[in-house]
Amino acid sequence: MTADERYAAAREQYRETGVDTDRAMARLREVPVSLHCWQGDEVTGFDHDGPLTGGIQTTGNYPGKARTPEELMADLDEVLKLTPGRKKLNLHASYAIFEDGRFADRDRLEPKHFEKWVEYAKERGLGLDFNPTFFSHERIRDGLTLSSPDETVRRFWIDHGKACIRISEYFARETGVPCVMNIWTGDGSKDIPADRLGPRERYRAAIEEILAEPHDPGLVKPCVESKVFGIGVESYTVGSGEFALSFAATHEGCLPLMDNGHYHPTEVVSDKIPALLAFFPEIALHITRPVRWDSDHVVLFDDETREMAKEIVRSDALGRVHMALDYFDAGINRISAWTVGFRSWQKALLFALCTPHEELKRLQDAGNWTELMVRQEAVKMLPFGDVWSEYCRSCGTSEEGWFAQVKRYEADVLAKRG
Ligand code: RNT
Ligand code: ZN
Q1: Are 96 and 147 in contact (CB under 8 A)?
Q2: Which residues have C-beta within 8 Å of that of residue 387, sequence separation ≥ 6?
Q3: Ligand 1 pocket member 75 (CB < 6 A)
Q4: What is the band of 233 on the pLDDT scale with cuts at 50, 70, 90?
């Protein structure tokens, strides 16, 4: 059977269940997903040579890590070629590019330090998202940034946040695509604190000051990301789930961002998505794969990934949920890690778009749980692989050929890096 014949047969089988696969693929081609620049070098960036701090950690030492902006951009180009679907590029402030060695500290960052990235994005038709970098820096005092009791520490990081709002607006104006700007800090403590409220009040006031930086809410979409705990920050996290959610709920224009690695292991973000959609016009996600903790393994086409995509699609919320990948694995080929993760989320979205949700909802509302179970199980047996192959083909990237290209790039480019 040719690929065309295989797809035609699959399309017919889906049609019988009430799903239009052509329409599903057309919809997916329009939906942007934000590709994180930091899988290319495990969140190192270009503005410091110290260690990664702030409660996040990477493991592994696979050769070929990108060491310069040019190398990172070249690697990203490979990923863009090997992955189907529309993309935004997600940058961290620590990836500023200082020409002729003219360094600027984080509180002094300006749009000009990201000109190269804007040029890169425009040439490739990508929107840009942004993140202030509140970690891996010597101005962090006792693990604290925006919630520090030290006024000068807080001031430095507030100024960093404000600079990032200005840069985010510059991104949006240049690319013509709104910029999602996510605030995450690892603020917290290793051991039992004597005061849990004070730091949260300071954190709240500091984020309010950042958001007071003038910006067009149509162009810059600030978010707050919560976390349950980090390595070395086991006892107390200032920006906890309740903190971030309450902050977003009470600050117009601020979105809650859920990272599915940031909850207790039996909590699932899939169930939280429609809960937030009942209240917020827009929400944001970091899509990762936590293994026992916030380990940031490569995203796979697994059950919870599929459930998250399903909740977005069946809530008709593809236009309301800002989706970004967030993981970093240094133990395997980084181009492959990026590609598998991006493709997995695309698969999950396409799988969700190829599910007869209206029919299934009708069964639920009719109280027909017996047939609902039977039908939901049957969906899993449909020839999804043939639809996925067709989608990849329609985007100019085959399911079969991409890994051979990664191996070539590894031999020709990555293996030659020191
Ligand atoms: C850390 C958060 C945060 C970071 C990125 C690099 O636990 O998930 O989003 O991963 O900002
Ligand atoms: Zn995250």
Answers
A1: no
A2: 7, 10, 11, 14, 21, 24, 25, 350, 354
A3: no
A4: very high
36 lines ligand 1 (CB under 6 A): no
Q: Which of 361, 204, 145, 178 is nearest to 284 (CA)?
A: 178
In angstroms, rounded to a whole number, what is the distance separating the alpha carbons of residues 28 and 184?
29
Spacing of C-alpha 123 from chain mean position? 22
Residue 326 Cα to ligand 1 middle (Å) = 7
The tens digit of pLDDT for each residue in 59-98 reads 999 999 999 999 999 999 999 999 999 999 999 999 999 9
* Single-letter residue type at 141: R
Residue nearest to atom 6 of ligand 1 (CA): 43
The catalytic site residues sit at 184, 225, 227, 259, 262, 286, 294, 296, 326
Q: Is there an atom of ligand 1 within 6 Å of 41 CB? A: no
Res 118: pLDDT: 98
4's CB contacts (< 8 A; 6+ apart) are none
Residue 180 · residue 223 · CB < 8 Å: yes
Give the number of whichever ligand sits closest to the CA of residue 184.
Answer: 1
CB atoms near residue 161 (< 10 Å): 25
Q: For residue range 363-389, list pLDDT tens digits in order.
A: 999 999 999 999 999 999 999 999 999
Q: What average pLDDT does this structure show over 306-331?
A: 98
pLDDT at residue 128 tops 80: yes
Spatial contact of 289 and 298, defined as CB atoms under 8 Å apart: yes
